[in-house]
Each structure stands twice: as C-alpha cells, then as structure tokens.
Amino acid sequence: MSKPFYLHNTMIAAMMLMTGGAAHAGLSFVVTDTATRTEAFNIAGFATLPTGSAVSLGHLDYTGPGAQTVTYTYLGQESGFIDKFYNTLSGAKLLESDAIGTSISSVVSAAGPLSFKFEGDTGKFAINGGHWNEGTSIGLIGTNMLIGSTTYAYVLGYNDSAGTKHLGDWDDFVVGVSAVPEPETYAMLLVGLGLVGFSLSKQKKR
C-alpha cells in the first residue's frame, strides 16, 4: 500500500531540511531569460566574473513548506548611482550606505515570487516576479555561495541602468537570500514524520 500523498510530501520536505538540500528548501530561482556580461562583476569578497560570462535573469520564488523567515542581506555594490533594495512585504529596505552584512527579514507563507524590488536612483525599478523598467533586471550570481562566514541559498545582483536589461554586470546592488523554517513548520514536519512512521509500522504488522 502506498503512503498517503500528504505523508509522502511531508517526508520529502523534512528530509530536505535535514540534509544538504536544506540550503535551497523554500526558495527557487525561476529563469526567464539569459544575458552576457558587458562589464566585469567585481565586488570585493567575490570572485571576478569577467566580461562575456553568462548570467541567468529571472525571479526568486517561495516554494514552502509552511511558513519560513526569509532574510535578505546586503553584500555590496559597484554602481555610479544610489540604488536601494525594498522588502515590500515588511516595508524595510537596504541602502548602499548600510554596512555590508546588514539584513532585513520577513515571514513568508504564500507560494510564488517573493515580495521585493530593486530601485535605481533614476526611479527605475526591477520588481521580483513583475515589471522591470527598461535598463534594469535581476540576475542570479550564484547558489549556496559562501560569502565571508555565511552561506546564502541564493545571491542576486541588480543591473540598474545599462541601457537594456541584457547589458551590464549585475553588481550594482547585491543581496544574499536565505530561508529558515518557523518553529511551527518544524513541528508540522516532525508530526508528519511521526505519522509516516506510524503508518509504516501498521503496514508491517499486517
């Protein structure tokens, strides 16, 4: 007899959180386009990504399970403009004047694109999962990246005004993003694992 669908999903989610896959648990980058760097990505603390290297463009989605605290951390910028990052769910923002490592967080439970946007000082926005003004875009710098002493599930870079969304270096404002399950989500997963164990023990007794 196969396990009930919800037990199977709960077990998979719990295993992801307890293994190396936990760094990605709850987040997924959806690639909508690709581009080639026309300038080098060269923020201190990162490996230089040269002119001509590829970058994936797209949006970062929340996939669950349950509720998780999503944290955005400012990792640096290399821009001639004054850019910003807004967590539109909480209203908090990150600025170029903030210290590297400054973080803002919010609890997320709804699946879909995370609620944030980048802004250039010309009033241009790149909204995650939504509209990008001409000359702006959101690029994927890397996954499971160790920056300093912290590993970030996803590192995203903003292209503020290079002419079109396909031109630039995506180092105009860089953030690291990670998600950690809320205590009640861990509790839900543990209950689910208990139900899986109970179900398996009943099957063995038959």
From TrEMBL:
Domain Ice-binding protein C-terminal: 179-202
Coiled-coil portions: none
TM regions (residue ranges): 12-31, 185-201
Keyword field: Membrane, Transmembrane, Transmembrane helix
Pfam family for this entry, one: PEP-CTERM
Protein origin, superkingdom: Bacteria
NCBIfam families for the chain: PEP_CTERM
Name this polypeptide is given: PEP-CTERM protein-sorting domain-containing protein
Organism: Nitrosomonas oligotropha
